């Protein structure tokens, strides 16, 4: 609860269970092991800044089945956040955000993503901001410490945009959250039908 901040108590109630953060979902040892597995794959790619009109700037990414023991165990735990019969897809989206990169407000395409998004954050803390598509004055901010898991489902996934704030405006409850390089492991289930 300390990791969420909403524009109003009513909105906080409305999104309870639909947008949430679990701190310390991944231990420091697990994080180090995951990064050891992923760094060589990421290091081959340059960060992309040029797609200024895209949702994400300053990033590199890959898709990957988590092979190792730690990755498999992690995937099993993340799968618990998904509805029965709608499990996460086996390919994990690995998104490496440069310290000067950020993710602009967007909604994940319903062509490629089902009802649930779950992401593990590694390395740098960041602030994820959700904003209502219908009433822009309604917003929810999530503080994502390294090792945390966030989940977006239902209305939080479909009726709100989400973004990762750039370093210059990375604040939570008035406190600065300096943004360094951040690696996210994002699980999504398949669209229905
Ligand atoms: C995305 C996205 C969030 C994250 O790639 O669509 O919203 O945690 N990523 O990096
Ligand atoms: Mn997204």
UniProtKB/TrEMBL annotation:
It comes from the Eukaryota. This is ALKB7 dioxygenase. One of its GO terms (molecular function) is dioxygenase activity. One of its GO terms (cellular component) is mitochondrial matrix. The gene is Alkbh7. Its cofactor is Fe(2+). Keywords: Dioxygenase, Oxidoreductase. One of its GO terms (biological process) is DNA damage response. The lineage of its organism: Eukaryota, Metazoa, Chordata, Craniata, Vertebrata. It comes from Rhinopomastus cyanomelas. The keyword Signal does not apply.
């Amino acid at each position: 609860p300390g990791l969420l901040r909403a524009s109003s108590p009513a909105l906080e109630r409305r999104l309870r269970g639909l947008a949430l953060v679990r701190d310390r979902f991944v231990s420091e040892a697990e994080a180090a092991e995951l990064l050891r597995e992923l760094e060589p794959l990421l290091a081959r790619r340059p960060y992309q800044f040029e797609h200024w009109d895209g949702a994400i700037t300053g990033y590199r990414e890959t898709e990957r089945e988590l092979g190792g023991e730690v990755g498999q165990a992690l995937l099993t735990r993340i799968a618990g956040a998904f509805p029965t019969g709608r499990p996460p897809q086996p390919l994990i989206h690995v998104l490496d955000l440069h310290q000067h990169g950020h993710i602009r407000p967007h909604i994940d395409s319903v062509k490629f993503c089902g009802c649930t998004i779950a992401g593990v954050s590694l390395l740098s803390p960041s602030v994820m901001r959700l904003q209502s598509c219908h009433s822009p004055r309604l917003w929810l901010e999530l503080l994502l410490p390294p090792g945390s898991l966030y989940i977006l489902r239902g209305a939080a996934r479909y009726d709100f945009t989400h973004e990762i704030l750039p370093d210059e405006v990375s604040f939570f409850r008035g406190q600065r959250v300096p943004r360094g390089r951040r690696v996210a492991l994002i699980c999504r289930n398949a669209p229905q039908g």
